[in-house]
Amino acid sequence: MLMVLPQVTLVLAxxxxxxxxxxxxxxxxxxxxxxxxxxDGGNDRVIRxxxxxxxxxxxxxxxxVLVFAIEVSGGEPGWxxxxxxxxxVGRIAHGFGMDGWRPGRPIGTGITMVLQVALAIWxxxxxxxxxxxxxxxxxxxxxxxx
Length: 146
What we know:
two-stranded antiparallel sheet; 3% strand; mainly alpha; 2 strands; 5 helices
């Protein structure tokens, strides 16, 4: 049997993969230009790019898990799409912010923090909602044997 994942979660996962690749390439570019193969060499540009990439990894998985959990629990797709777009935009802004675009870092950090709190509250509200417990849609299972 094949489990079909919800649409918002799939799109978010794909977007996060692209942003992760973009941040990784940016680390490689600055390493090459600064001639630093391993570590950061004490170079501020390398450190900033590495931290932007690491910070993404520290936060992206949690947003993905929360969006998935909320989506399979019947959360409003419109709000989940908004959260998904906001998070991806915030992480891109944060990447540029770590390179010196002054508003980028606080924009990315702020969006990430607000979304983590909002999605966490939403998830708990769903979990504690007695009315929703009986109407939670199950994840669709599809047979591959037609």
